[in-house]
Amino acid sequence: MMAPQRLLILLALLAALAVQGVLLGAISPGAHDTTDWRAVVFEALLFLFVFSWNVTFLPYWKSSKTLCLGSLLFLAGAFTDVHDEFFFQPYWVNLYLEDPAQALGAGLIGLGIWFWAREKEHLLDQLQQQRDFEAALIPKLSHDLRAPLTNLCGMTSVAEEDPTFLEDPKRRQEYLEIMWRGAKEMSLLIDNILESHRLKSGTVELKPSTVALAPLLDEICKDFYYQTKRKEITLVKDCPDAELSLEADPVKVLRIVQNLMANAIRFSPQGGKIALSA
Predict the structure, then answer these.
(1) How far is CA 20 from CA 46, 51, 109, in A?
(2) 85: helix, coil or strand?
């Protein structure tokens, strides 16, 4: 993809320089009788270097506009300088075109390189943050998943060792609900990790709709019933208006409230109280 783009840039630069040469030729009174070939060689080499520089960097115009603009100005000034070695030019060409283009172009090139270096440093910082996030992900994931997995393994082990243990319908229903809550807790942890990745990559997609708050709070209370029961925490729901609703992404709202609830349970003392109000 880059090679065809560079070819188009090469052709465009040659066309632009041809137009500039025609215009300079139109305003030139005539050619020099003698030519300083040492100056010609130096300025021609400088021109070729700047021309190659433009072909190399112009494909990155979107990310380095200052650098590319300075390169174009410097190229126009360098071409005018080469033309000046062969043809007479009016004084104002040097005063208003050649010298300002080279000076301003060189300044913009330097500023563009500085901007580009800063951008690269920023990208490297982002990459390092991503690596740090990935490095911390596995220990955190292992730690957060260990408790629900241990509960599930222990419960299934008891049921396997004593097949009659789950013959009691009440006990069987309680075990199934605990296992379901544990699986849902692990699903929430994985969803949070995926959501963090989407936030960092900027791919979060919101799908707003009408969210009824009373059923949402009921679902939250059911999801965390056994966690609150384990710590003897009193869970209070306060939603006087049963018709209360909001416009938001229901999945994102549920995840936010679940995270808040999980943190509230984690940091509440034994026998504490948590209120859900809307």
Answers:
(1) 18, 14, 21
(2) coil
User: Biggest alpha carbon distance in the chain?
Assistant: 113
Assessment of whether the complete model's pTM goes beyond 0.90: no
In angstroms, the CA 272 to CA 123 distance is 46
The residue extents of the domains of the chain are 2-126, 206-278
CB 211 within 8 A of CB 247: yes
Q: Is 238 helix (H, G, I), strand (E, B) or coil?
A: strand
The residue to which tokens 């993809």 are assigned: 1
Task: Identify whether the C-beta of residue 108 lies closer than 8 Å to the C-beta of residue 70.
Answer: yes
Q: What is the pLDDT of residues 156-174, one digit of tens each?
A: 777 777 777 777 788 777 7
Using alpha carbons, select from 260, 254, 271, 142 the residue that is nearest to residue 209.
254
Give pLDDT, residue 201. 66
- CATH architecture, domain 206-278: 2-Layer Sandwich (3.30)
User: How far is 23 from 28, CA to CA, in rounded Å?
Assistant: 9
The number of residues in the chain equals: 278
Residues in a beta bridge with 274: 235
Tell me the H-state helices in 233-277.
250-267
Exposure string of 221-239, with b = 16+ CB inside 10 Å and e = fewer, is bebbebbbeeeebebeeeb
